[in-house]
Write a structure and sequence with these properties.
The complex is a heterodimer. Chain A is mainly alpha-helical. Helix content of chain A is 61%, strand content 4%. In chain A, strands 1-2 form a two-stranded antiparallel sheet. By secondary structure, chain B is of the alpha+beta class. Chain B is 29% helix and 14% strand. Classes of the chains: A mainly alpha, B alpha+beta.
Chain lengths: 147, 251
């Protein structure tokens, strides 16, 4: 059913003539499908925090020399690390798709005389940039480019 | 029960009740209603009011999704009850007042807080100098109209406030409809008050509370897309603040 929301939500600055009941929200507000997707979107921040910590570990290994670096690379083959990186990839894809869906409509109709391109074009540009940058990074990490 | 619209079906409506003279907190009451297949939720509420329980209070007026009066939470989702078909719901339907608003009585919510937020964004044309009547009308091209027309279609039904997860946590947040309306005037080629409104957007009721959950646009019955307005307003407010250091304001 319903539970109390913030008692000050949408309250007028001065009380009205009639006594009112405090605002309510549906009990299952946070578990509805759209809200669940939104919360998952926010929760991916935790995964990115962990990815950041892994990046710090990589930096420390670089500082500590070749043996530490080789040990780090070996540890990345552990199933737990593989699963974590798989999860990070899923999170990145999820956030990317949601962001690209919402980003175009957040663009102002114009900034001064400049106008953004039509939304389908903006969508295409975002995905093209995403795929292009990913391919460049893969080429660099795979040693294919630059020669 | 047979009727022109086909066989009636008995449905249970669990309706929120609150009498400010008797109740401390809202409670629910169930009603059995023989509903025709073509009925909207509002038809069932009017049946309850007319045939079962005349003490039930709810707002409605136009019955064609224009006046914005009949917004309620139907099975937890903010809906215009005159536009919401019962055929999309099960045998039991929960009707509650719009979430996030104080409740005056039963399904009637307190709107004064909403109206204060509306007024705060100065929803009128602000001109540096009023044009004399003999100078003719303000002209606007179709392209200039297109920049804000979508945001002017709001019917003030407040469904977006009931859906917004920020409104329920940040009482000072101006909210989707008010920001969309302010943004509508900012985008109007006849208006010169954008810097005043942007100062409001950046102030206590800041647009930056919005976390872009997009719920307001999901529930908007007129496809106004308030989430787009709020997030465009965020960017415009920042640009306006940054340019204020180098461009002298005329007002």
């Amino acid at each position: 059913m319903a539970r109390p929301a913030d008692p000050h939500a949408m309250q007028p600055s001065r009380p009205g003539r009639t006594r009112t009941a405090p605002p309510q929200v549906p009990d299952d507000f946070w578990t509805r499908p759209r809200m669940r997707t939104y919360l998952l979107f926010d929760a991916t921040g935790i995964v990115y925090l962990l990815v950041g910590l892994v990046a710090l570990r990589v930096a420390w290994a670089l500082r500590d020399g070749k043996a530490a670096w080789d040990a780090l690379l070996a540890s990345f083959a552990h199933p737990a690390y593989l699963a974590f990186h798989g999860l990070a990839l899923v999170c990145a894809l999820f956030v990317g798709v949601r962001f690209f869906r919402l980003f175009p409509k957040a663009q102002p109709a114009h900034i001064g005389p400049a106008k953004p391109p039509p939304r389908p074009v903006l969508h295409a540009m975002l995905y093209a940039a995403w795929i292009g940058i990913t391919l460049v990074l893969l080429a660099i990490l795979g040693g294919v480019w630059p020669k | 029960m047979a009727s022109d619209g086909g066989e009636s079906k008995l449905r249970t409506f669990v309706v929120t009740r609150f009498d400010p003279d008797k109740d401390q907190v809202p409670k629910t009451q169930s009603y059995q209603v023989p509903c025709r297949p073509d009925w909207k939720v509002l038809d069932a509420l009017n049946f309850i009011k007319d045939e079962i329980d005349p003490t039930l209070s709810h707002r409605w007026s136009c019955r064609m999704a224009v006046c914005g009066s009949c917004g309620m939470n139907v099975d937890g989702e903010p809906k215009l009850t005159c536009k919401t078909s019962l055929a999309d719901y099960g045998d039991t339907v929960e009707i509650a007042p719009l979430a996030n608003f104080p409740i005056i009585r039963d399904l009637v919510i307190e709107m004064d807080g909403f109206m204060e937020k509306f007024k705060a964004v100065k929803p009128w044309i602000i001109a540096a100098k009023e044009k004399a009547a003999e100078e003719g009308t303000y002209e606007q091209s179709p392209e200039q109209l297109a920049a804000f027309k979508q945001f002017s279609m709001c019917i003030n039904c407040m469904l977006c406030y009931a859906a917004c997860p920020v409104v329920s946590k940040e009482p000072d947040f101006l909210g989707p409809a008010a920001i969309a309306l302010g943004h509508r005037y900012n985008m109007d080629s006849r208006d010169e008050g954008a810097s005043e409104r942007n100062a409001v957007f950046r102030g206590d009721g800041t647009v930056f509370h919005c976390s872009y959950a997009n719920e307001c646009s999901e529930v908007c019955p007129k496809n106004v897309d308030p989430a787009a307005a709020v997030n465009q307003a965020k960017l415009n407010a920042v640009i306006d603040w940054a340019t204020s250091f180098v461009v002298k304001r005329s007002r």
